[in-house]
């Protein structure tokens, strides 16, 4: 298959054709401008595609085939990350922040191919950890007390989450992605950098003492308003701890602030990231089912209190190994079961290199409903 010219489609075996037909019945319906802001997305189960995989015709062919042969019906594609843009923009206000890490060639044809395969194209846009935009637009940077640019532990510049010109730039990228054919916009790094005591104090020009959670929510609300007019959903990635911690994290993320102003939240509930004893689980990484179930149940409870129903939570699941045990198909199955038992249908697998072959045996062949009727848990249920 060539990802160029006129919407080519992979050849399918009879088994693949039946899988695609079943998936089409369960896949989210095309959003319309009148309903996109509130429409339930249905079942969305996806894979993360980094910029380098997205630029590779060979790798995209393989990822599309994975979706054709499994329950996966969405690909989350890097369109703007910390390396800059991953597409050729036609907007002069966007082009100057392009970066130098290449772009996806023939993006329109790729999106046509995904549509032909009944795969939801999701545009991942990194917002506030953006060293490319920070270098090109120094007035948008986080500063130190002496007025010089602030840098994180890796020496990276961050842009100022209070800057309204920066907001407009990121939303323009999202609007362009929507017009190109992406059905959903996923904002990542919707947060402030960690305020480590070992680093200089962060200064945010133009903040006017507005609380961090309020600024993040205001940005997402504006983005949601503008993108709804184009008929696409607005989603956001957040730390997994946000589902359980009362109030706001130091980076500004607070469930009750961001959940109402997005269509879907994607908490990064990787079991390896929870310390021993979380949810009364001795080793969360060794018990992916309980960890995911408890984390997503907390999110479900908080959404219930906010009156937010439907598929408003779609967690990131761990498709990588960090510590012991090594993760494989069984850990994928257990994480998915935790999502379903917590009352949701959707999830997205994260592997930083977008390499999912070792985990494919943990996926079903067709996209069917698996979620259970949700009841607030008194404690983590027993492992089966």
Question: Which SSEs are present, and which pair or pack?
Answer:
Elements: H1 14-26, E1 45-49, H2 51-54, H3 57-69, E2 74-81, E3 84-85, H4 92-95, H5 107-116, E4 120-126, H6 131-136, H7 164-180, E5 184-188, H8 212-228, E6 233-239, H9 255-258, E7 264-268, H10 288-306, E8 316-318, H11 329-341, E9 347-350
Helix pairs in contact: 7-8, 10-11
Q: If you had to describe this structure to a student in words, what would you say it looks like?
A:
The protein has one domain: TIM Barrel (Alpha-Beta Barrel). Helices cover 31% and strands 12% of the residues. The protein contains eleven helices and nine strands. Strands 1, 2, 3, 4, 5, 6, 7, 8 and 9 form a nine-stranded mixed beta sheet that branches. Helix 7 runs parallel beside helix 8 and helix 10 packs parallel to helix 11. The longest helix is centred in the last third of the chain and has 19 residues.
Compact description:
The chain has 384 residues and is α/β, with parallel strands linked by helices.
The total of helices stands at: 11
Order of helices and strands: HEHHEEHHEHHEHEHEHEHE
In angstroms, what is the radius of gyration?
A: 20 Å
CATH class: Alpha Beta
Number of domains: 1
Per the principal axes of the C-alpha atoms, what is the gross shape? globular
Largest sheet: 9 strands, mixed
CATH superfamily: Glycosidases
Give the oligomeric state: single chain
Judged by helices, strands and strand pairing, the structural class is alpha/beta
Give the mean pLDDT: 90
| Overall helicity | 25-40%
Give the low-confidence spans.
1-38
In what range is the share of β-strand residues?
Answer: 5-15%
* Total beta strands: 9
């Amino acid at each position: 298959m060539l990802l160029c010219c006129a919407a080519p489609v992979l050849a399918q075996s009879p088994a693949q054709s039946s899988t695609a037909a079943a998936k089409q019945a369960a896949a989210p319906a095309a959003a319309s401008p009148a309903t996109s802001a509130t429409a339930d997305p249905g079942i969305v189960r996806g894979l993360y595609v980094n910029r380098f995989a997205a630029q590779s015709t060979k790798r995209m062919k393989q990822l599309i085939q994975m979706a054709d042969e499994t329950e996966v019906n969405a690909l989350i594609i890097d369109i703007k990350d910390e390396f800059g843009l991953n597409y050729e923009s036609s907007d002069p206000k966007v082009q100057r922040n392009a970066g130098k890490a290449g772009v996806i060639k023939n993006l329109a044809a790729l999106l046509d191919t995904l549509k032909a395969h009944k795969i939801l194209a999701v545009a991942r846009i990194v917002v506030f950890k953006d060293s490319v935009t920070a270098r090109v637009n120094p007035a948008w940077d986080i500063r130190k007390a002496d007025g010089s640019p602030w840098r994180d532990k890796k020496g990276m510049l961050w842009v100022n989450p209070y800057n309204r010109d920066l907001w407009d730039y990121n939303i323009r990228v999202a609007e362009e992605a929507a017009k190109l054919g992406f059905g959903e916009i996923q904002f990542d790094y919707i947060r402030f950098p960690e305020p480590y005591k070992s680093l200089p104090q962060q200064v945010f020009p133009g903040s006017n003492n507005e609380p961090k959670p309020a600024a993040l929510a205001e940005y997402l609300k504006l983005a949601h308003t503008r993108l709804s007019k184009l008929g696409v959903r607005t989603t956001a990635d957040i730390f997994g701890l946000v589902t359980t911690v009362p109030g706001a994290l130091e980076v500004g993320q607070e469930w009750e602030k961001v959940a109402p102003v997005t269509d879907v939240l994607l908490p990064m509930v990787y079991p390896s990231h929870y310390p021993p004893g979380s949810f009364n689980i001795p080793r969360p990484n060794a018990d992916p089912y309980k960890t995911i179930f408890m984390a997503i149940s907390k999110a479900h409870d908080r959404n219930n209190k906010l009156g937010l129903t439907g598929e408003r939570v779609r967690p990131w699941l761990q498709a990588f190994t960090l510590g012991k045990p090594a993760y494989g198909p069984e850990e994928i199955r257990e994480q998915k079961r935790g999502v379903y038992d917590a009352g949701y249908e959707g999830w997205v697998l994260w592997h930083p290199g977008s390499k999912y072959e070792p985990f494919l045996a943990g996926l079903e062949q067709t996209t069917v409903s698996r979620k259970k009727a949700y009841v607030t848990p008194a404690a983590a249920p027993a492992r089966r």
